[in-house]
Amino acid sequence: MSKTRFAVTRRQFLLGSAAVGGSYLVPGLRNAVWAAGSDAPEKSSVRVGFIPLTDCAPVVMAAVKGFDKKYGLTLQPAKEASWASVRDKLIAGELDAAHALYGMIYGLQLGVAGPQHDMANLMTLNNNGQAITLANQLKAQNVTDAASLQKRIASQAKGSFTFAHTFPTSTHAMWLYYWLANAGIDPFADVRTVVVPPPQMVMNMKMGNMSGFCVGEPWNQRAISDDIGFTVTTTQQIWPDHPEKILATRAQWVQENPHTARALTAAVLEAARWIDASEANRKETAAVLAGRAWINTKVETLEGRMLGQYENGLGQRWQDAHPMRFFNDGAVSFPWLSDGMWFLTQLTRWGLLPQAPDYAAVARQVNRIDLYKQAASAVGGIALPASDMRSSTLFDGKVWDGSNPAAYADSFPIKRSAVRSA
Questions:
Q1: How are the residues of the chain apportioned to helix, strand and coil, as percentages rounded to the nearest 5?
Q2: At what angle do helices 279-289 and 258-276 cross, to 10 degrees?
Q3: C-alpha dihedral over 235, 241, 246, 252, to 10 degrees?
Q4: In terms of domains, do 166 and 268 share one?
Q5: What is the pLDDT of residue 8?
Q6: What is the CA radius of gyration of the chain?
Q7: E strand or H helix at 319, and its extent?
Q8: How far is C-alpha 117 from the geometric centre of its chain's CA atoms?
Q9: How many CA atoms lie within 13 A of 100 on its CB side?
Q10: Does 24 lie in the same domain as 148?
Q11: pTM confidence score
Q12: Is the peptide bond before 218 cis (omega within 30 degrees of 0)?
């Protein structure tokens, strides 16, 4: 990764550097004009929605640690009950921005996750840190991995097993579908899938409403702690250092509040860097998130996996090589075009789009790399990559680099009916 860095101070960020009496277009910031000496945020208070999950940490800590104040903002985190609520309030303008699902934002951009709205991804909030949990009833039937699950499902009538994810176009739906299909299980023909809000996953499994679920932490660890389920795979085992939640808003909000959007991104970016800076900071973050206002759970339920210390409920313990990461010298935070394009390939694969998208064009429209770079320059000391694309190898051996998304989407043996070409 390139170590190209900017040297813009926070004072320059807040005050601007235009000549008195003039104004100019900021290079790379679409439709925005900086008035002389006045690039301060248009809004002093910003309401940011979040779901009670460990990966909301950068949003919460930006407010708790006062990083928002450094950039002229008061960040107001708003706890929401479901991703559908986040979506509805975001597009209605009740939320300025949100801790959001990558696939939900792309689904809104394309009009398949709700009414079509032009959206903006300001930065990635985390990599890794989700999991697929199976109910202990399956463990009692000697189902402990994908192969044994496939055999068990094949022995029953189609639709006998129910799996939950968090939203129709969510990251969790894509991880669940990808993992099931790799095991020879068609997620649309062989099993039943339902949408359940993250905080309700464990209770629904306890009630016997599902055989498995895919969700973010701490709810997978909570299933183990409550002795109702076990982790059959983590999402970082499916795709090491995969993109997960993003800081999202509407494109119109960015156009109307470009300085606020930049300041918000800078504050959350600095919080992400702070969290990843030390184990002590991660422990402090876990202690904060466990509080009633945020996730409302035991600290130990959060802390272990936040530190990469895993157990799977089957007697195995390990230090994960790809734990939940929030910064990683900027590699996490950068809104890679290829990350967004991957979710589009999966929406295409599963027949969730009316026609094949222009993958790169959609990603360039949604992922606001221009604004991210300006925020990174304000924070200072953040590495920027030489390319807007990155290459990854998933657990099935497939290499994803964004170079041929249409062929990639069509390369899987299990998929739904092909969408029409654009």
A1: 40, 20, 40
A2: 120
A3: -120
A4: no
A5: 36
A6: 21
A7: strand 317-319
A8: 19
A9: 33
A10: no
A11: 0.90
A12: yes
